[in-house]
Amino acid sequence: MNTKGLSLNTIPPILIPLRFFLTAPFFGIFAALLILFYGPEIWTSRWLPGPLALTHLLTIGFMLMVMIGALYQFIPVMVGQLIPGGDKLVPIIHPLLIVGTLSLVSGFLLAINAFYWVALIALGMSTAVFGMSLLPLLIAKIKDHLIVFILRILLVVLIITIGFGLYMLLAYAYPNADIVFREYTDIHASWGLIGWVVLLIMAVSSQVIPMFFVTPEFSVRYLKIASLLIVMTLVGLFIMDKNLLQSDLFTLLLQVSLSLELGFVAFYILLLINQRRRKLPDVTINFFRVSLTSLLIAVLCWWLFKNDFAVPLKAFQIQFEFTMGLLLIYGLALSAIIGLLQKIVPFLIYLNLQNLSFKHPQSMMAEPKLVLNMKQIISTKQSKIQFYLHLISFILLIVSVYLSQIVFLAGFFMLCNFIWLSYCLFRGFNFYKNNKKEILTFPEMKMDFSI
């Protein structure tokens, strides 16, 4: 593992990020149960309550939950500074995010306005508090670090994504307001999945992949330019979509530009992965390969369905919409996030136990070893099972959009995927609690400052 340039002494209390990681899989479990409950009906229309609930269980309940936890862990290690007020604000952000997600899903499924209002307030407050907690760190004069640069852009992207989401949620909560919101759905999705997800994967991958897989360092210049171009292209497409400027040629150029930008990001990261210097087999890297390949397939599918040479495919418009959603959410985002959890949770637990053992040095001589390596926390075998469950469920979900008979099998493997993830994470947490308890039985080293 390459830890060059990391501030390993600046880590948050373990329960700050871990509470987000431990909670997130339950939303994936709820999503799988929703598929099993609705069956083939889940792929009827993306506007129905079931698919809307499914989408937000995965995007807010799982994706956003993990990404907030990951930022609380990674920013201090990367830049040497804790996110201000983490110990005080996280106990507010975390439950509000849970309540907001569950209320939103309940609103979709039960069509009760009160749930929409609760979701509007809870999600608005949780994201606002999180965004404001990042501000002091992002405006401070910190060394020119890639993750800080991208996070500054990501904060703007997050505000836009959440802003569109809350606006549409207001339409659900207050139907008498006659708010036209469906026209903003695709914009909300593009800013969330292409803006927020792709840029965040770029930022986190640029640190995780070289550190854990010993690849060449990411080019700061390339990724800075790519992140700016992606956001500028999304702004341009928004302008064209709202008819603020009418030009079919310019729209086509923007679409081509965005495809090339996303293709560059995917190919660039895959190229660095293939150049890794640590040649020992590591199944977790396959999660990132699936993630980036899904992005490339999504770009290809978009061009196939959106252009005149693919007219016969227009009959599959509904299937196309769900295919794109699964490629970007389950393929791109969830593959990277689950792969990320296989690495950063053991790293977090190992680092906390190691720092604790330094304060109780006699514990380092205990037999069996209390802090040996990260494979004790999530083993290679566990990661292999996780990868196969994820890959099989992903493929089955895509196929079930076209062959509805296998939707129950897809839902079953998806359920197994998230249950296994939850098991591995809680098993790692129990490893931490038990070993921490053992380490604390040894005397703490006292520093004598007397002369």
What does this structure look like?
There is one protein chain. This protein is mainly α and 451 residues long. It has one domain (15-350, 367-439): Up-down Bundle (Cytochrome C Oxidase, Chain A). Helix content is 74%, strand content 0%. The protein contains 12 helices and no strands. α1 packs antiparallel against α2. The longest helix is centred in the C-terminal third of the chain and has 43 residues, at 317-359. It is globular, with a radius of gyration of 22 Å. The protein starts with 14 loop residues before the first helix and ends in a 12-residue tail after the last helix. The mean pLDDT is 84.
Which key terms come to mind for this protein?
451 residues; 12 helices; mainly alpha; Cytochrome C Oxidase, Chain A
> In percent, how much strand structure appears in the residues?
under 5%
Q: Can you give the mean pLDDT?
A: 84
Cα end-to-end separation: 40 Å
User: How is the main sheet built?
Assistant: none
User: What is the number of strand segments?
Assistant: 0
Element-level helix/strand string: HHHHHHHHHHHH
Shape: globular
Unreliable stretches = none
Q: Architecture, CATH level 2? A: Up-down Bundle
What Rg, in angstroms, do the CA atoms define? Answer: 22 Å
Helix share bin: over 70%
